[in-house]
Amino acid sequence: MFVFSTLLACSAGGEPPPFDGWPEYLPGAPVAGAAEWPIDVPVGGPMGGYSSRCGYLGGDSAQDRRQSQYTVNWAESTGVQTRQEIKVIWLENGDDHLVLAKADIIYSFDGLVDGITADLEAATGLDLDGNVVLASSHTHHGIANFSDQYHFYLGGDLYNPEVFARFRASAVGAALEAYETREPVAIGAGWAQDWDPSDAVYRDRRGENNDLAIEGWDDQVGMGKDESLHILRIDRLDGTPLAMTMTFGMHGTSLDGDSPMISTDSTGGLEAGIEEAFDSPVMVMHLQGSGGDASPAGRDNNYARLESIGDFARPLVMDIYDQVPVSSDPISMETASRHITQVRDEIRVTRNGLVDWSYAPYDPNMTPDNVVYDDLGKLLSPIDEFNTQYGGAFCGSELPLIPGFSIGADVFPYSGCVDVEAISAVLLGIFGLDSVPLPMPEGLEAGTTVSRIGPLVTRQADGSIGSEDLLAGFFPAETTAMYSEQFRRRVRDEIGDERALVVGYAQDHEGYFLIPEDWLAGGYEPEINIWGPLQAEHVMEGMLEYADSVLSTPWHEPEDPYDDWPSTVYPDKALPDFQPDVNPEAGTPITEPSEDFWVPLDLVLTLDSPSQVSRVRDTVQFAWYGGDPAVDMPRVTLQRQDDDGSWDPVTSHSGRPITDDMGDILLAWTPDPLKPVQDPQLHQWWASWQAVGHVHDRTGMPLGTYRLHVAGEAYVGGSASWPWATESYEVTSETFEVVPVTLSVGASGDGLDIWLEAPIDGYRLIDLAGSSRGPNPVRGSVSLDWSDGSQDVLETTVVGDVGHVTVTAPGGATSVTVTDQFGNQGTLAL
User: Fold this and answer.
1) Which of 82, 152, 292, 302 is deepest in the core (most CB within 10 A)?
2) Do 728 and 758 fall into the same domain?
């Protein structure tokens, strides 16, 4: 099958000669650029990840009877908690390039990778075939119908070519900005183990493998969460940070399937928390490691929970980051990409000669023996239980999800498998398709990438400093903890790299990747891939083969000289011609919203303009007529008035403007009327800001005069398809004064309890020891002003959800006024 590998293996002396002028590696000084862009996707589109949002399966997260031109059989998204972004690091050494992109999406799509690559090659004149990586955050709250993979229509609705094109353009724009801003850098890597021992950031979610013994793993039985953390640090030559990546696995499922708001979810909260460890904007990119069986942790509820993940992670991650050394010394780079075949009868696992596992040839008349293991507990092969021509889905349970359509085996977990042919019939009905090709084309090859960079100065997990290459595998699936551990072990034993990096949810998507023993333990994770227990490690072996045969030579080989690993071909589909609404009212404040006007959470709609806004306790709401969400994703910015009367964006500690990108400002959309979408509609937009600081000094929002500023786009007509012709509009809220919040003070034993009570409809994190909708401790220094004229300045001690000071009241005092470090006050009568 691997013709090129055979050529290498058969060459004299074990070293392949240069072929057709293959160039040798040329080490060079590292150069990098970084950029981050919002992804141009429409509010109203379908969010991927929770299949319960499909109307056929319940329509979870549907808020009303609204319709969107961007959904087919899926609940419409209704607003934005945090915007989906794409982040890009463009790394080169004068000899080779690696374009590393990470997007806030449910999974990657190889058709998108190919499109981005083609556009970047056209724009730069570079040969980037195989050198572009698209990883995903796996948020379950991102617009998902950019992917044309049939069996994942059940994860994100029917493919929409316009959404694909808009996403592609956003990715290319971000990548070109990274390319154009490249500069010489110093780069280094760091590893840590057991860096989150209390499970404050993430935790194991798969109990089926806790006691699972793997042959060859003599030092380990079972596995919880993958405790590995990898950091790549990129600094400018003047020592200022440019970008960083952190790799570990954590699902994007802090918010449940009933949430209708676009959100970057747990990984977005993580990145936002780490960004604010810096005092200037630094591109912080989280890459998924073994996220397939790891859940987000954090505390509090709703959106505050997302923020808490960043707060918990910041000191842990930055402690490692600060120990990562960097160097501008020359490095070598090479990246290779292959689509590994997944034709059923070619799937095989050998573990470098230790086993020989395959499937028995498909036979529609065969009755499986339903015996999975021999008397010694070893897996029997060939496997006759996975007797399905087109694959099996929803394996992992005792009974099939669709009764009567099993693949014929009665032994667990094969007994739960539903034949993919039956799934294809379901797709026809749900999405109104004329046909579904079998086998589904996206399942026949798995897009993969392996890259070697180095040597990099590296902080090891034990704290020692060394120098080594970084071998990174980019996997097209939800990699699980045991799977990642197997890859690291096999790289060490078969290729010689002491420690390999696993990045999942990249390049393509094949469901969950588990090693065979783990897949056979059943549970939820084996339900999503379609080629059974051997699929995942078969793909791993293909990656190991070309990582060794290609990246271990001193030459830059052609990407696929014999066309052995062709990409999946997705047919071109025409852009939709559904016209957006022309809204001449765009930019007009709303004073009388429609009867169906929707706001998130359980907030009470109030459009009265407050003159004063108390820190933490109060929320400003503002509504306006805007453009059709086909063209409008209004940018809402918090502005503060300067002494000279001008207005400037409020910025975070790191210098980022406070906008609806960041979770500080919520954005929502309501069409009027809600339906039908074919008729003209007015488009009502709404924003809400709770008076809480971004990450730092949450209870100390600077006092002053503020407003919300909105910039959007409205359709002007005349376009046949996307990109739609638009004009800009702007509108601002009434101004308001931010004032101190009243503290709660109570007598308690030997002193005073002091706390800040968050509102019952709050949605921002106030304190890790407190509640977004309850009491929060007052921290730091407080002054006690007694009514007898005396004063104490004390440090509070956090006790539960309150701050406490030990004090004895002066004999003549009848009251005390407590003032915290931000000027918030509370008074207690004695």
Assistant:
1) 292
2) no
